[in-house]
Amino acid sequence: MPVDDVSPLPKSRTRIPVVIVGAGQAGLSASWYLCRAGVAHVVLERHTRFHAWKNQRWDSFCLVTPNWQCRLPGFPYAGDDPDGFMPKDEIVDYVEAFADSFDAPLRESVTVTRVERTEDGRFDVDSDGGHWSAAHVIVASGGYERPVTPPFAADLAPSIAQIHTRDYRRPADIPAGRCLVVGTGQSGVQLMEDLRIAGRDVALAVGPAPRSPRMYRGRDATDWLYEMGYYERTIADQPDPKATEAKTNHYMSGRDGGHEIDLRKFARDGLQLYGSVTGMDGTTITFAPDLERNLDDADASYLGIRKMIDAYIDDNGIDAPPEPPFEKVWRPETEITKIDAEAEGITSILWCIGFRPDYGWLRVECLDETGRPIHRRGVCDVDGIYFLGLGWLHTWGSGRFLAVGDDAEHVTACILGRLGEDTHGQRFG
Questions:
Q1: 7-145+357-419 domain in CATH 3.50.50.60?
Q2: Exposed/middle/buried for residue 147 (C-beta within 10 Å: 0-12, 13-18, 19+)
Q3: pLDDT confidence of 247, banded at 50, 70, 90?
Q4: Rounded to whole angstroms, how far apart are CA atoms 19 and 13?
Q5: For residue 48, how many other CB atoms are within 10 A of its CB?
Q6: Cα separations (Å) of 172 from 59, 88, 162, 178, 200?
Q7: Where are the domains of the chain?
Q8: DSSP bridge partners of 95
Q9: How far apart are CA 98 and CA 53, in angstroms?
């Protein structure tokens, strides 16, 4: 397969077949396949490799999926606890060992400032550490660049501290007093629990996130779902792909061996729950009257997964221990829609409502009106632009260790095919 030489162009622009933007597990998975194929490329990372794992996770962070699902290219999990859940330091060790297993052409502390298509169909890639002309650009910068806070957060009294998930490391980061955790995706419920374990005073604003069983009928629910083929279902198989892409992850925990999280039990044991936050003005915080509905919807998701597993067990005659029926141990007597944070002793807000990607440097018509990439399994209609590492890029596991390598293999296979379309290397080299 012909591959262009990496040679300088006028104005110090280097001609190269492939540029990868981002050196997380997605970008380095693509690099692993390109290295194996002998294709010249460069991986540009504005921080250091795996920066988010090292510097943007709290101390007690651990995987919520079992270790056996860690399947980076040529580097499956090989530890002695496949059914366990790696804590942060072990995750870092795993991804670092993966990166050390091959010689990626990585350039760290290089920020890409512009990617733009040129008249000849190539792409100018500019950064604060060099300039390239590439036939193919893989965008693997992830979907967690910009922390989300609502506009009305600016109206909260400055006496109440505001912290985002990305900046939380440990309970000591939270000022004395009650902390209102906003959001019930995986981060929100785990940080609420982290604070409670430390004996801190916490309240929780409950959003519409779904929840999942942990252990069910003798096995981890994710084991059942994998065996059932659930994780092989593609985004194209979903009734409403756009809605599926936008869904919040089911909440549960891998902490202390793994457990499910039932917010009703926390409320029964004294945790103050509110509905979704709708506004802030000084020390006044308002909530939607949706607490009970959000709890009911989370339970419906939980029960739906149990029902799927039950049906699979029955259909296949599997001998699995029965489970007691689910019961709601608590329900709100009233819906609180307004509080005075100062009167409630709230001294801080911990925002756990997600992130958005930042594609401000990507000057190519490959995004929809909401800023989401337009692609089919990471391959854009714009020849030469690809995405990796996004949730539901192709399957549920696309943004996780489970399937990011599969998507990287697909994208790099497309690149290899296109590189081979022109034996002179004039278009794709």
A1: yes
A2: middle
A3: confident
A4: 13
A5: 12
A6: 11, 18, 14, 13, 10
A7: 7-145+357-419, 148-351
A8: none
A9: 14
Q: Which amino acid does the sequence have at 67? A: N
* For residues 388-415, average pLDDT: 96
Average pLDDT over residues 37-60: 96
Please determine whether the domains at 7-145+357-419 and 148-351 fall in the same fold group of CATH. Answer: yes
The residues, ordered by sequence, that sit 6+ positions from 417 with a Cβ below 8 Å of its Cβ are none
Which pairing describes strands 41-45 and 13-21: parallel, antiparallel, or unpaired? parallel
Inter-residue contact 390 to 399 (CB < 8 Å): yes
Beta strands in 128-268 (DSSP E): 130-139, 146-147, 161-164, 178-182, 202-205, 215-216, 219-220
Q: Is 310 exposed, middle or buried (0-12, 13-18, 19+ CB in 10 A)?
A: middle
Asked if residues 178 and 347 have their Cβ atoms less than 8 Å apart, the reply is yes
Q: How far is CA 296 from CA 291, 292, 323, in A?
A: 9, 6, 20
At 144, the pLDDT band (50, 70, 90 cuts) reads confident
Cα angle 303, 306, 312; round to 5:
145
Residue 146's CB is within 10 A of a number of other CB atoms, namely 13
Question: How, if at all, do strands 284-287 and 277-281 pair?
Answer: antiparallel
Q: For the chain, give the mean pLDDT.
A: 94
Give the integer Cα–Cα distance in Å for 392 and 384. 21
Q: Does domain 148-351 match CATH 3.50.50.60? A: yes
Q: Is the pLDDT of residue 427 over 90?
A: no
Reported as a single tens digit per residue, the pLDDT across 309-349 is 999 999 999 999 999 999 999 999 999 999 999 999 999 99
207: how many CB neighbours lie within 10 A of its CB? Answer: 21
Residue 139 has pLDDT above 60, yes or no: yes
Residue 413 region by backbone torsions, left for phi larger than 0, else alpha for psi between -120 and 50, else beta: alpha
